[in-house]
Design brief:
It is built from 15 helices and 16 strands. By secondary structure, the chain is α/β, with parallel strands linked by helices.
Length: about 425
């Protein structure tokens, strides 16, 4: 991807002044606030918009585009999960509930995580209004204006931008790419985790690359962060979409002590095909969990009961869904990566987890323009690598949570486009 560099990669976008968004500043020195400035505060103005949405918007009004740009399964939520949600509504469970979530669901999640990774107690579990909300809540609890956080990239853009909402500075440590796959320069990451760093964010298996951190790397990182008092925020959204040995990808939870500064977040969206239900959870030390409860009250108050009932059904009876989904994705992954590597100018590595192929196109230097052109000229929808940070430029993300027939059609369209 790039040679290892000693200089830090700062992922904060350059600031745009309010005058660029709200009109000319009023010249009267006695007015401290320009009366015609109707836009947001500077930290919000600096946030980057979704370039995946920008590509998707290029297809508005068209029905001929074969889309693989969003990270979403192509199957409906299983019927037994939907029925649990409907039964709750029919029973009249339409009222507020506890900030932390239903005790039945929190207990089920504690048992699920304990069996999968390491023992956790109910008081460590908080149910949230999506995995995205879990990440925002964890960040609101831990990070403030002027804090420094470090993230391993390329990365889902939401996770890079969340700390910036709160005024934090984000330094990115990029993965390296080769035909063998994406790899982490551990020494470079540890060097970036210097005294004064507030938090490290790690998403593994990773969106968009499929890279998965190893147990040895986790151990070294955890020990380093213990010494310096750095929080680890682990985004485990794809921990079950894992193609290696065992039922889940390596997790910090497995090796952490109760005293460690660790928060892990997760979602019902990927493992149980529940993207539209908008529910997740986080695991945190009890002292921190109590404070996050305050933030939930001031953000969403609680997760709807019928959504939690559906989630309870998923946790208690959804293991067959996960096993079938992982095997389906494994076949899709193997098929897509093999076919992509048959196309001249394309180089794709086999991801060890998640549901994406993040591949390089030789000679392509503007992935946003390239993906927009694919929509218009090839009726193919893919996500531009630049959407995942400057480290992703020259790459394209393809979500392979789809049928082999659709994938084959998409590969044919890409191959034809690259011949032009």
């Amino acid at each position: 991807m790039r040679d290892t560099q000693d200089t830090p990669l700062i992922c904060n976008a350059p600031a745009e002044s309010a005058t660029q968004h709200g009109g000319a500043m009023n010249a009267d020195p006695h007015l401290s606030v320009p009366p015609n400035n109707l836009t947001a505060r500077e930290a919000v103005l600096r946030l980057r918009g979704s370039k995946i949405r920008e590509v998707a918007n290029a297809s508005l009004g068209r029905s001929d585009v074969l889309a693989f740009w969003f990270g979403e399964p192509d199957e409906q939520t299983p019927q037994f999960i939907r029925r649990a949600g409907m039964a709750s509504l029919e029973a009249g469970e339409t009222f507020y509930t506890h900030n932390f979530g239903l005790i039945e669901l929190r207990t089920a999640l504690a048992n699920y995580i304990s069996a999968l990774h390491a023992p956790v107690a109910v008081e460590n579990i908080i149910v949230t209004s999506s995995g995205m909300s879990a990440l925002m809540l964890a960040t609101q609890a831990l990070v403030g204006a002027g804090d420094r956080v470090v993230e391993v990239t390329p990365l889902w853009p939401n996770l890079v931008e969340i700390p910036k909402v709160l005024g934090a500075e984000v330094e990115c440590v990029p993965l390296d790419f080769s035909a063998a796959g994406w790899t982490l320069d551990l020494d470079r990451l540890l060097s970036a985790l210097k005294p004064g760093t507030r938090a490290l964010y790690v998403n593994a298996p990773n969106n968009p690359t499929g890279w998965t951190i190893t147990r040895e790397q986790q151990t070294a990182i955890l020990e380093h962060c213990r010494r310096l008092g750095i929080w680890i925020v682990a985004d485990d959204a794809y921990d079950r979409i894992w193609f290696g040995v065992g039922n889940a990808a390596p997790a910090f939870l497995t090796i952490a002590d109760k005293e460690d500064r660790l928060v892990t977040t997760n979602t019902f969206s990927k493992s149980w095909l529940m993207t539209g239900w908008r529910m997740g959870w986080l695991v945190a030390p009890p002292e921190l969990a109590i404070q996050i409860g305050k933030l939930i009250e001031y953000n969403t108050s609680c997760v709807p009961v019928f959504v939690q009932r559906a989630g309870l059904a998923a946790v208690e009876s959804g293991e067959p869904v996960i096993r079938r989904t992982v095997e389906r994705y494994r076949r899709a992954r193997d098929f897509l990566v093999s076919k992509l590597n048959e196309i001249p100018r394309v180089q794709a590595a086999l991801p060890s987890g998640a549901m994406y192929a993040f591949f390089r196109v030789e000679g392509m230097t503007d992935s946003l323009a390239f993906c927009k052109s694919l929509v218009v000229e090839a009726q193919l929808g893919l996500a531009p690598g630049i959407a995942f940070g400057p480290e992703g430029e020259g790459f394209v993300r393809w979500c392979f949570a789809s049928s082999e027939e659709r994938l084959a059609d998409g590969v044919a369209r890409l191959a034809d486009a690259l011949k032009r």
